[in-house]
Specification:
Elements lengths: L1 H7 L3 H29 L1 H18 L6 H12 L4 H12 L5 H32 L4 H8 L1 H17 L8 H7 L1 H8 L1 H9 L2 H32 L3 H13 L4 H16 L1 H23 L4 H25 L8 H25 L2 H15 L10 H28 L1
Helix pairs in contact: 2-3, 2-4, 2-5, 2-17, 3-4, 3-5, 3-8, 5-6, 5-17, 6-7, 6-13, 6-14, 6-16, 9-10, 11-17, 12-13, 12-16, 12-17, 12-18, 13-16, 14-15, 14-16, 15-16, 15-18
Amino acid sequence: MAIVREDLQLTQEQIGNTIIASVAITILARLLCGWLCDKYGPRITYTGLLIFGAFPVMLIGFADSYEAFLLSRLGIGAIGAAFVITQYHTSVMFSSNIVGTANATTAGWGNLGGGVTQILMPLIFGLFLAVGLTETLSWRVAMVVPGAAMIIIGVLYYKFTQDYPEGNLSELKKLDPRFQKRSDDSSKSFMSALKDRRVLALTLIYGACFGVELTINNIAALYFIDYFGMNLTTAGLIAASFGLMNIFARPLGGILGDKCGVKFGLNGRVYFLATVLFIEGLTLMLFSQMSWLPLAIATLVLFSLFVQMAEGATYCVVPFINRKALGPVSGIVGAGGNMGAVAAGFLFRNMDYQDALLYLGVMVTIISFSALLVKFTKAEFKQEDDDQKFREQEEEKSRIAMPEMA
């Protein structure tokens, strides 16, 4: 962005607008993809998103004005709906006692891509500089690389995955009436999810964790360049450390959330979520006040641990909210992350970055208490108890069968 800012002569307000646009469009895309997963299955939905999303990534290299750059960022922002498809896919593929771990691990590796991008894109940019291209041309040509990678992954996803443990949705509709009904009732499921106050509470919560992470991803490098006088490469590496924490921090949130769920039941998952979100807000406020570089980096890493754990903990709860409307619930809560990023984007659009970080930390701390609005019905508690008993019976059968096989 530092190079693009200079090439296209973008103001801070215009940069803020592109950040807001890129996350705002994802709100609609996530809502749509949650519904599409129920309607057509995650395999087809994911493949289409990756392949069609590759084009605005590559075409942004043709932007020669603020308006053209903004339109491309809108197209790129829609790719963020990939998260909802991933969460839907892992939720239907994994048992309830480890679904939080599965969701958090896949999402963590997705967010890890943000950290890897902070490192790789400046290197790819530098590679094109080294072969003789100008700065203006190098950043544009560099965008072809991630676009091509998306097309390749889209093809591989179509070829090597399936919608459900039982098979692909198109085939299952012919064999099992339940799958046909799930597809037919997708619109009704969306409305039922939208009316559930627990979904709205989790939407707000996810805005306070993933929305904040998106915002930090967008401004971290610029923050260290402008406030600590760092060069582009070093600032990119520090910013990358924030995203790279996802390799273990978000899975850790899912793992601990699952453990709390197994030991304390569904409420244990909720209380764990409230705790890590509260600490996230405190560490963000602390980071905003750091003026010495080593402490700023240390508090950024500490903050990233809790913001990403909160994300993992959120989708440790989501699969247990209205299981018949899993796609819409995943989509609505996922869209909340981008709503949070849009709201935070307005703070950074016209305000000093340090002040904006402080106010954001205060809001996250307050929002953490909304987790207490997530309550479960007797039927949902019974469903989880039945699942737990079933797992124990299956484990017992396995233990008995193993000596016999030996």
